[in-house]
Amino acid sequence: MSALEHKPLPGEGYIEHIATASVYRGRGIAGSLLQWAQQYTAEQSWNRLTLHVSHNNEQAISLYKKVGFRHLSSYSSWAQQLLLHEPGWHYMSWTPDSLSSYS
């Protein structure tokens, strides 16, 4: 995903990579990691936490929405489709003011 070359803005936390081995999925590990990142974002007084997720990763997209992330934009390029075999990426964001709704 670093091929996206995202440069976080001041006050923005960015999750570059998050993954759970398939044998450990469904145990709440990714959700716990996201909740920790959200709490850390709030403690640092950052205004948002962002990430990119593959258009194809429906399970991750569902989890991100469940913990309060919103879709901001989408990105696609023929070069990434050719080199990474990914059709595109969604850019998602979470803001600390929504923390109490999902904890």
Describe this structure in words.
With 103 residues, the chain is an alpha+beta fold. 34% of the residues lie in helices and 22% in strands. Strands 1-2-4-3 form a four-stranded mixed sheet, covered by helices on one side. The longest helix has 15 residues, at 29-43. The relative contact order is 0.21. The model has no long low-confidence stretch (mean pLDDT 87).
How many strands appear in the DSSP assignment? 4
**Structure classification:** alpha+beta
Rg from alpha-carbon coordinates: 14 Å
Helix content: 25-40%
H/E element order = EHEHEHEH
**Poorly predicted tracts of residues:** none
> What spatial order of strands do you see in the largest sheet?
1-2-4-3
**Beta-strand share of residues:** 15-25%
Shape label: globular
Largest sheet: 4 strands, mixed
Mean pLDDT: 87
